[in-house]
């Protein structure tokens, strides 16, 4: 199997020139995107939520986040 060399940036990195180009393309597309406003979803009674399980590690992680726990 041949090896291919790819000049890639580290994970999550974006070349500045590409980012500016991408922002420009997005700005040009804005008029083409329809904006629809949906009514907010009605709250659901806690008694109707069944069968939802959260792994203990996830629950602990959320508990330590200031937005959700501490």
Task: Describe the 3D structure.
By secondary structure, the chain is mainly α. Helices cover 33% and strands 0% of the residues. It has two helices and no strands. The chain is flat.
Short characterization:
With 70 residues, the chain is mainly α. It is 33% helix and 0% strand.
Structural class by secondary-structure content: mainly alpha
Shape: flat
Low-confidence stretches: none
Overall mean pLDDT stands at: 79
- Using DSSP, what is the number of strands? 0
For the largest beta-sheet, the strand count, sense and barrel status come to: none
Termini Cα gap = 52 Å
**Radius of gyration over alpha carbons?**
22 Å
Q: Which series of helices and strands comes N to C?
A: HH
Number of helices: 2
Percentage of β-strand residues: under 5%
Helical content (DSSP H or I, runs of 4+): 25-40%
What features would you highlight for this structure?
70 residues; 0% strand; single chain; mainly alpha
């Amino acid at each position: 199997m041949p090896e291919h060399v790819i000049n890639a940036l580290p994970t999550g990195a974006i070349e500045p020139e590409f980012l500016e180009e991408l922002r420009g393309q997005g700005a040009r597309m804005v008029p083409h995107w329809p904006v629809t406003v949906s009514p907010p979803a009605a709250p659901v009674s806690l008694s109707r939520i069944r069968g939802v399980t959260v792994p203990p590690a996830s629950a602990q992680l959320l508990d330590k986040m200031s937005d959700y726990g501490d």
